[in-house]
Design brief:
globular, 10 strands, binds 2-O-methyl-1,6-di-O-phosphono-D-mannitol, EC 4.1.2.13, alpha/beta, 341 residues, eight-stranded parallel beta barrel
Length: 341
Amino acid sequence: MSERLEDIATAMVSGGKGLLAADESSGTIKKRFDVIGVESTADNRRDYREMMFRASDAMSKYISGVILYDETIRQKAADGTPLVDIIKAAGSIPGIKVDLGAKPLAGFPGDTITEGLDGLRERLAEYYKLGARFAKWRAVIDIDTGKGVPSTNSIASNTHALARYAALCQEAGIVPIVEPEVLMDGAHSIDTCYDVTKATLVKLYDELYAARVVLGGSILKPNMVISGKKSGKTDSPEEIAEKTIKLFREVVPAAVPGIAFLSGGQEDEEATANLNAINAIGPHPWKLTFSYGRALQAAPQKAWSGKASNIAAGQAAFTHRAHMNHLAALGKWQPALEKAA
Ligand code: 5MM
């Protein structure tokens, strides 16, 4: 496959394929394993991820790339094959999470700043050698308007860090996924989500221009415009689609080849229905697909539950969700397809 940044970025979002976000850090994967009663050991994490990467139908037809964690990009399957080689053999692209997590932002209670820029040039060079052709950095923007969260400083600091990260990635021949996640955990309305996401994306593209990032060789990984979970309101897919697209048309340059959404705590089918509604009102200037973590993995995690005898069931659950999201990325999903399965 071509090594041009623009070609890699295009391959990541085309043909209704999307990304598997399997980059849970040690603390996050432990939380996921706790739910299914599995101890979070290196071997269990390897077995679980190997199960998904060996789901050949899902990986070859629906998953364009996999975001890995530092441990996983170095791991070998039970038979000694590097996990990266299994991903590549399926025609999928290995990627790597390079941020070191969100820490409290000094002086701004409730805001966080994502760390990991120091030494990033050297880490990217190593990840390139290990096979990564794209990377991901997640900035976390919470909403708590009563407490002044997010602050202007949080948006400025996080988007500046995203731009510095993206420039370093492109220097290393790696496509940056820029992920400014406006959390859906709060009690805010969909219109507040719209305003905060808009402020974040406007600043993000200012910073990316200033850092001379080539937009054609980058991917945006945003939240959808959606009400906070604690608001008690469930928005229709049509409203989410209409507001999300209205916003993106105002602020995301057409030079960006693709937008790959995070699921952010949406239920599996909800994330699929919302992506489908977004694509159903196209055509759009960019490809719109998925880069889901929880909405792709909750079902296979439950089906697998740490037992070797459940590997086929786990792979079937993963393949089904990947297939449904593939259809949603093409605007061709229907609820009846879930029931049929
Ligand atoms: C898979 O989860 C990713 C890693 O999270 P931590 O660094 O907190 O362990 C996360 O960045 C993920 O890639 C995105 O948030 C999208 O995942 P969801 O579950 O929101 O689709």
